[in-house]
Amino acid sequence: MTTFDRHIIARLLKGFVFFVGALIVFFVVLHWVEYSDDFLDGGATAQEVFTVFYPSYVPEIVRLTSPLALFLSCIYLTGTLAQELQLSALQTSGVSLYRLLRPYAVVGLLVTVFMFGFNGWVVPRTNEVVVQYENEYLNPGSAPTNLNEIHRQNSPESILAVGYYNRDRKRANTVSLQTFDGPSRLARRLDAEQMEWIDSLGTWRLEDVTIRHFTEEGATKRSVATLDTTLQILPKDLARTQNDVAAMTIPNARNHLQALQRAGVGNLGRSLVAYYNKFAYPFANLILILIGMPIAAVRRRGGQAARFAIGLLIAFIYLSIQKLAEPFGYAGALDPAVTAWLPHLVFAGVALLVLWRTRT
Questions:
Q1: Torsional class of 213: left (φ above 0), alpha (ψ -120 to 50), beta (otherwise)
Q2: φ, ψ for residue 332 (rounded to 5)?
Q3: pTM of the model
Q4: What DSSP character marks residue 244?
Q5: Measured between alpha carbons, how far is 360 from 124 in angstroms, rounded to an integer?
């Protein structure tokens, strides 16, 4: 790696950090201006909001804005080099655009890998605090009291199905706990009319219970009035909504979706799109930098302002296509994996086209 490569990498990363910081400040100020009254009216203090809520909100802002921040850093740095004729001098001396692109691609790959881990493991944990504050202060009463058709994995061999759940009373109705022996053979099934959480015992109490055991010789059945049992599933687990996959780590999201699919749950489009987005979205960092560098390398009338305008337009179209594609995945018109990856594949093609058409 040459001195020029290290110089470009250092300046790109410095610009990336600067633009991420600027976007964080912008989003936090905008959010506070819009919701400060709701926080204060709900009983939260400004100190609590700025020392607990916003520090937890920052990772989500970084997740959303990292492609734009890296793109702006690329546009600014490359535009500066073009205006100062440094790129022209290098190209005149025989250095191709593709060679100049190498340090940019290195930074794009580094940020992509970092954001994959950041999005997959860090952001979901900090978002728990964000959701808690938003439900308590910004959207009180907006969360549904009852949740219908819930399926949760209790263990690798058992799945809990609930007809509907009242999160306020911590009570579930029409409950079925299925235990499997092997990939698909049902070994035991427990059905109950109701299931209620007992805080003092830390257990679930089931009422009107029917227990069935299935063997190669046949099935046995017995009934009991009440049954206290300990499950790995807690009340907070049953209170999850359809948007929960976005707030789960990648391993938890994978296990959650496998349990739902194993139980035969339908309408998983939204959850599957959110899961595949955990893998696809970080690639926007690499793709946008591959688009931004050749565009900014061409000197244009209007200087940096024109470059930023073109860059922001491209980033806006890119991110808009992602959002426009998602409803098709939710409804099942597109495969969820295709929905998550399609915008990135399209703009990867755009990046190759831009690189091909730019003079070397």
A1: beta
A2: 90, 5
A3: 0.82
A4: G
A5: 43
